Amino acid sequence: MNDAIKINKNLYYIGVSDPDIRTFDIIMKTANGTTYNAYLLKTDEGVIIFDTVKKEFSQEFFEKIESVCKYEDIKYIIMHHLEPDHSGALAELASKAKDAKVFISPQARPMLKSIAGNLELENLENVWTNKELKFGGKTIKFLSTPNLHWPETMSSYLSEDQVLFSGDVFGSHYFDARLFDDLVGDFDYAFKYYYDHIMRPFKTDVLNALRLYEKYDIDMICNLHGPIIRKNSKKYIDAYYKWSTKEERLHGKKVVSIFYVTSYKNTKDMADSIYNGIEANESLIANIYDLTALDEQNMLSILEESTGILIGSPTINGDVPKPVWELLSCMMLLEKKGKFGGCFGSYGWSGEAVDMMQSRLKALKFRVPLAPQKVKLIPTKIELLNCYDFGYEFGEIVNGKMVEMTL
């Protein structure tokens, strides 16, 4: 029998551990495993459940609930996030606690049918910022925190105990049986890694959430993954603020970064000419990088500080070389708002690579103002001058020149 773990006088941990998982959502490494956190609050009038767990761990989840209450005692279920690792046991919980009302964000309602199809709609209620639940001597304030990291995510705050139920915010894929931040090992690396891969693309939304959170005194953060933060919530809140706040521009200037790979120096020659064109604008700083010499973390740091991003590549076997795809893959971890992109490259036969890169940038929601620069084989002096003009024009656009975006 698995027992719930008491967090404070009335609040219990009913989450589960997945210590053996080594890859999460395809893109994340989980060297220490992870947890699927859920919580149970006892009140004078009944029980409130905060989130559920991955379906494969349902039995343990229900055993923990049964260790502290009966299903008829459960009056409310609050779902902060409907991703399957948190909603996997929701349908069964709703069938066991038949009279419980389920609180979700308005954006969650159209998603719920595919996740928990047997939920009766009359048992659902939409909640958002400024709505609250007063029940059994406890006050739950609901907070809308969309896109962290799905559109329907939300948070809530337990006023009497100063507990923030943050959803995926402030989470980490880090299993340690000791459960709390002050007892487990050093998990700072996992906390930052989680932020980079889950929250970093939504920095504006993170800052909006932090503005909501700062209105409340937070003694404990009950997140959905990793250690519960009960001793130093300010440390983790400040870290999110620092990582989500745009750094002051280098020397007060916008940065344009040029990434390239080259087979026979042709694409590099194009990159150099484009670089010179950008540098002709004294209010910009241009940087140029050989992609074969960069790792992912350096790519992310450079992309983060860059307002303009240009990618150059030859076409090899009708495709884009692997280092370029790795760069483009990194970009899904990036907030693209306000960023401009463009492409260039030399080719020998068919030249598909440049168009592939251009299409990918548009799909990633970059602003792509110019048609790509293509050169067959060795660029001529005139073609290199065209590259210079391309760089100059791109720099002007990054600096505020108004143009129509390319289709």
Condensed summary:
This protein is an alpha/beta fold.
Would you write up a description of this structure?
The chain has 407 residues and is an alpha/beta fold. The chain has two domains: 5-244, Ribonuclease Z/Hydroxyacylglutathione hydrolase-like (Metallo-beta-lactamase, Chain A, 4-Layer Sandwich), CATH 3.60.15; 250-398, Flavodoxin domain (Rossmann fold). 31% of the residues lie in helices and 22% in strands. It has twelve helices and 21 strands. It has helices at 58-66, 84-87, 90-96, 109-115, 188-199, 203-213, 233-244, 266-279, 296-305, 322-330, 352-363, 381-398; strands at residues 5-6, 11-13, 16-18, 23-24, 28-29, 34-36, 39-42, 47-50, 74-78, 101-104, 124-126, 132-135, 138-144, 154-158, 163-167, 220-223, 254-260, 284-290, 308-312, 340-347, 373-376. The strands form five sheets. Strands 1-2-7-8-9-10-11 form a seven-stranded mixed β-sheet, with no helix packed on it. Strand 20, helix 11 (352-363) and strand 21 form a beta-alpha-beta unit. Helix 6 (203-213) packs antiparallel against helix 7 (233-244) and helix 8 (266-279) packs across helix 12. The N and C termini lie far apart (60 Å). The model has no long low-confidence stretch (mean pLDDT 93).
